[in-house]
Amino acid sequence: MKYLIVYAHPNPKSFNHAILETISEELRKKKRDFTVRDLYKISFDPALSAKDLSAIQDGAVPKDIKREQHYISKADILIVIFPIWWSAMPAMLKGYIDRVFSLKFAYDITETEVVGLLRDKKVFLISTTGASKEDYEKMGAFKMMNMAMDTAIFQFSGMKVIGHKYFSSVPYVSQQDRKKMLQELKLLVREKLL
Ligand SMILES: Cc1cc2nc3c(=O)[nH]c(=O)nc-3n(C[C@H](O)[C@H](O)[C@H](O)COP(=O)(O)O)c2cc1C
Q: Which atom of ligand 1 is nearest to the CA of 128?
């Protein structure tokens, strides 16, 4: 079983980075084969350009996109870690999806339907919010975000979504509560991913 962690947070001191470290440690302890793509660290270019679009159309996928597609192709399980910004994923991660989840790689269009091509893969998403769980539940925000991300991107591409874990109120909770969150995460990893 091969894992690919796609990580999108610019700050190595963030709670998201602690999530990345916690998961990496769990996988390492179990001697699992995993790769991390830290999108800010590798300075991934998130802007899908006119040049990209025509190259993809011609089947001449640009090298940096191909590299990321190769990592996905080799993986059985994707773990995607990111903060919620403006009730969505950061533009860096959205740009990765725009460019890497391209036509003929993530999906194809037949005469009658659109088909997901990544059907042999599973995905687990982990996000943090500033908003409280109660506020986001009241707003219907989790439902909206799950629809926009889990369903409209990952399921659309054929993947099985194992789950989407949200850690809420992250900037406002105590250090003690953050430790508890990371403990909860460890159990979740053991239960759902190992
Ligand atoms: C540009 C930006 C937009 C944000 N938008 C939201 C939002 O829409 N909803 C929310 O709950 N938190 C929002 N936040 C707060 C972050 O989600 C929160 O600070 C982060 O998840 C905490 O984790 P971190 O310490 O790893 O950054 C936003 C933060 C930034 C920087």
A: 21
Sorted by sequence, the CB contacts under 8 Å of residue 132 that are 6+ apart come out as 168, 169
- Cα dist. 11→40, 81, 171 in Å? 9, 13, 14
Q: Name the superfamily (CATH) of residues 2-192.
A: Flavodoxin domain (3.40.50.360)
- Residue pLDDT, tens place only, 39-56: 999 999 999 999 999 999
Enumerate the domain spans of the chain. 2-192
Is the overall model pTM greater than 0.90, yes or no?
Answer: yes
Residue 14: which of 33, 40, 32 has the closest Cα? 40
Residues 170, 15 contacting (CB under 8 angstroms): yes
| Ligand 1 centroid distance, CA of 45 (Å) | 22
CA of 170 to the centre of ligand 1 (A): 8
